[in-house]
Design goal:
It contains 14 helices and ten strands. It is α/β, with parallel strands linked by helices. The chain has two domains: about 300 residues, TIM Barrel (Alpha-Beta Barrel), CATH 3.20.20; about 35 residues, no CATH class. The strands form two sheets. The chain has an eight-stranded parallel beta sheet with strand order 1-10-9-8-7-6-3-2. α10 links the parallel β9 and β10. α1 packs parallel to α2 and α4 runs parallel beside α7. The longest helix has 20 residues. It is globular. The termini are far apart.
């Protein structure tokens, strides 16, 4: 079968179709108000990407419990106080013909103590971060918080949500046999360690209904994760009938696995070969050219998630449509370039912490 065109529509089992194969990756940007309410800077950043041609525009990670905040300026979705801004955002994204999706997140042991005002939570006690082990009741509350947040997104008018199960945050902490040393329902076997994830997905599907789009983000490496286990979780997620798409965050779509036993072929191939039923598979990881995006579809992915390329060009999809050889501008870029692309001061300051991304400006004489 020939690879699909980047500008062919993509249907889902639940909810509306994407007009193309470009999804905005969920990107930390530190621009929300301290209480989690949407700011004008974050509104501009996201709606400009919808205008720029993305088939689906996803928010940054939005925390589902106050104590699950992972970084300053994080968007919140743990309270109805957030509904006003979220409703405005959803309407503006959808008005541009883009699907509007919120990523649901809890940082777990990666919640800074000085930010949340208490010891962070983790599946098991963690000396390095000072995290305390969650009780089974607190795990059940966590499941409910994700479900409540998804319903809040639905009420705000979003087309769907993505559950953040990647990058060493709380759901990835449960999946890790190194971090999760619990016994009982939520520890031990992979089935038990992944139980909280599937309870969340089932709860969201039950609460939000058949017309609501539901995605899941996983990462296959680092943070104590095992590639063989994440493959099993990915296959179960794609074939269980609950989700519409799996977003695999690969760090770099061209890389080989870190684990020696799996080296010799691209990391992406370990997921594109899995049975996926009606679930769509997307990949993320340093896609900054039209050629790389096409290569991901040729390798078996259904769509691509654009992060760095979308920071550099709000209209990345439109540029690819106009130029099949399009390449994102070379790094480093100036602060003015990022301002012109709709990033606010806090986001630009954050990007300066990415080595080689923002040019060092000479002081004025």
């Amino acid at each position: 079968m020939p690879a699909p065109n980047l500008f062919a529509p993509l249907t889902f089992a639940h909810g509306p179709a994407m007009k193309n194969r470009f999804m905005l990756a969920p990107l930390t940007n530190l621009q929300s108000h301290p209480d989690g309410r949407l700011s004008e800077d974050e509104f501009r950043w996201l709606t400009l990407r919808a205008k720029g041609g993305f088939g689906l525009t996803m928010s940054c990670a939005a925390h589902v419990q106050r104590e699950g905040q992972g970084f300053p300026g994080q968007l919140g979705i743990f309270s109805d106080d957030h509904l006003e801004g979220l409703t405005r955002l959803a309407a503006a994204i959808k008005a541009e013909g883009s699907l509007a999706v919120v990523q649901l997140h809890h940082a777990g042991m990666r919640s800074p103590k000085d930010l949340i005002g208490q010891a962070p939570m983790c599946p098991s006690e963690d000396a390095e971060t000072g995290a305390r082990a969650m009780t089974d009741v607190e795990v059940e509350w966590l499941v409910q918080a994700f479900v409540d947040a998804a319903d809040r997104a639905r009420r705000a008018g979003f087309d769907g949500v993505e559950v953040h199960g990647a990058h060493g945050y709380i759901l990835a902490q449960f999946l890790s046999p190194e971090i999760n040393r619990r016994s009982g329902r939520y520890g031990g076997s992979l089935a038990n360690r992944s139980r909280v994830l599937f309870e969340i997905l089932q709860g969201i599907r039950d609460r939000c209904g058949e017309s609501f789009n539901l995605g899941l983000r996983l990462s296959p490496e680092r943070f104590g994760l095992k590639l063989a286990e994440i493959r099993q979780v990915a296959e179960q997620a794609m074939t269980c009938g609950l989700i519409d798409y799996l977003d695999m965050s690969l760090w770099d779509v061209a890389k080989e696995p870190v684990e020696e036993a799996f080296q010799g072929r691209p990391l992406i191939s370990y997921f594109t070969e899995l049975p996926r039923g009606d679930t769509r598979l997307g990949v993320a990881g340093k896609i900054t050219t039209a050629e790389q995006a096409r290569a991901c579809l040729e390798a078996g992915a259904d769509f691509v998630l654009i992060g760095r390329g979308a920071i550099l060009h709000h209209d990345f999809p439109k540029r690819v449509a106009a130029d099949p050889d399009f390449r994102a501008t070379a790094l480093p870029v100036t602060r003015q370039h990022l301002r012109d692309e709709g990033l606010g001061p806090a986001f630009i300051d954050y990007m300066q912490t990415w080595k080689g991304f923002v040019a060092v400006e000479e002081p004025a004489e």
